[in-house]
Design goal:
Shape: globular
Number of strands: 13
Structural class: alpha/beta
Length: 307
């Protein structure tokens, strides 16, 4: 295949690129920062990779490269868990997903020939938050800010079906690997200062990065995969369980909670990402026959911390 990828230099995207390159596929990296992309993917190590400068929120000549690609993985979006949600920041979070996807779909609509499939990221924030409910792919959306972002994001992606292109929307859970959310928790545990964030009762719906990349590869290669799938492991846990399991794997105590007010002082409205959660079940994903390498949290954390 020849696969175009946005968000390729990110936590998930960079691992996806490595897997695709290792399997002999050609890759087009669409990036705002070509110099950084060249450092992440040096030409001597990534011979089948082309780096193309793009402006994600505006049309441009970059859109022409889509016509040469078999498929697209659209993973780009401003990080939601870093910094306070000022009005400007919230607009950036929304625009990077809504307008970014809009321009990818526009490029597909104008391409000749067209790619056969668009894999579009979304997030489990689509469902809103709850300590008591559980959600699968058929559940209704929530009405908080992140839910509204996900609705707008997915609505733009769905327009690609008007061009006759297969669409797969993957609602990402919290991705665990060497980096990301886990990378921010581990230092405290190393210093014997780890513990649950907030009440500890909030749900933590997670997925190991290797399983997420395998899920993207399945979506790219199996034409029967279509529609919305939850990209989460089948066994979500509560925050207190995450903390206890992480402490156990690291042989560190997990009794020192991080109070809600400290997170709120740091992140403002953005604190919802870690202080509230949702129990998300990957019902449709399991029904495809997808086999998780890491269905349970302990096995996932053990692999990450010993690799």
């Amino acid at each position: 295949m020849k696969v175009a990828i946005t968000g390729a230099t990110g936590f998930v995207g960079s691992i996806l690129v490595q897997r695709l390159h290792g399997e002999g596929h050609k890759i087009v990296v669409l990036t705002r920062n070509t110099a950084f992309a060249q450092k992440v993917f040096p030409s001597e190590a990534f011979s089948n990779l082309e780096i193309v400068a793009y402006t994600p929120n505006t049309s441009g000549s970059w859109q022409g490269v889509i016509a040469s690609c078999d498929s697209i993985a659209n993973l780009a979006g401003e990080p939601i868990g870093e910094g306070r949600w000022t009005p400007e920041r919230k607009q950036e979070i929304l625009n990077s997903r809504k307008l970014g996807t809009q321009k990818i779909v526009e490029a597909i609509a104008n391409a000749n020939p067209k790619p056969t499939v668009l894999i579009n990221a979304s997030a489990i924030g689509y469902y809103g938050t709850s300590e008591t409910a559980s959600f699968d792919e058929a559940s209704l959306s929530g009405n908080d800010f992140l839910a509204q972002v996900c609705q707008a994001w997915e609505a733009e992606a769905k327009k690609v079906k008007d061009a006759g292109v297969r669409l797969v929307i993957l609602r990402f859970g919290i991705v665990l690997g060497n980096g990301g959310a886990l990378g921010k928790m581990i230092p405290a545990f190393k210093l014997f200062a780890g513990g649950p964030i907030g009440s500890g009762r909030q749900w933590f719906s997670w997925i190991h990065v290797d399983d997420l990349v395998n899920l993207i590869l399945q979506a790219l290669t199996k034409p029967e995969i279509e529609g919305v799938y939850n990209a989460t492991a089948p066994n979500p846990v509560r925050m207190a369980d995450l903390s206890q399991t992480l402490g156990g794997v690291m042989n560190r105590p997990s009794w020192l909670p991080v109070p809600s007010f400290a997170i709120e002082a740091l992140l403002g409205d953005g604190a919802i990402v870690v202080l509230e959660g949702q129990q998300v079940i990957p019902k449709r994903t399991v029904e495809t026959g997808f086999e998780y390498k890491y269905p349970n949290l302990k096995s996932a954390l053990t692999q990450i911390l010993t690799s």
